[in-house]
Amino acid sequence: MSARTIYLSRLIGLYWIVVILSLVIHKQATLDSVTALFNNPAIVLLTGIMAVAGGLAVILAHNIWKGGALPVVVTIVGWLALIKGLMFLFLPAAAESEMILSWWRHPLCFYLCMTPSFLIGVYLAYEGFRPRAHA
Fold first, then answer.
1. Cα-atom radius of gyration of the chain, to the nearest Å?
2. How far apart are CA 23 and CA 6, in angstroms?
3. How far apart are the C-alpha atoms of 129 and 120, rounded to whole Å?
């Protein structure tokens, strides 16, 4: 396993765990903030720019499609960040807002939407920090 894969799995895993827990604990504030975000074109633009930059950083440093599940999951996360950023940059804010908030406002769907990201974060963090035998 490459040091880059381990580093990125630790970084992304811990980031997703902390952020998702915060969003879930502060559900109403999350909904209010995301609603406000979509009503501010400058913030939508900056969010898109940052997501594109983060996605490209992962893809350019780690576009690995073989070698086990961990490197592939890290690569997929990079591609998803890039796609999300491009959506922020090119889709109208109203379409993004409707797509995301219509799901998140439903009591159960909010948690269903957060669960996969949280579980992927746990997987990445676990695999990143798991002791490995030196060959």
1. 16
2. 26
3. 14
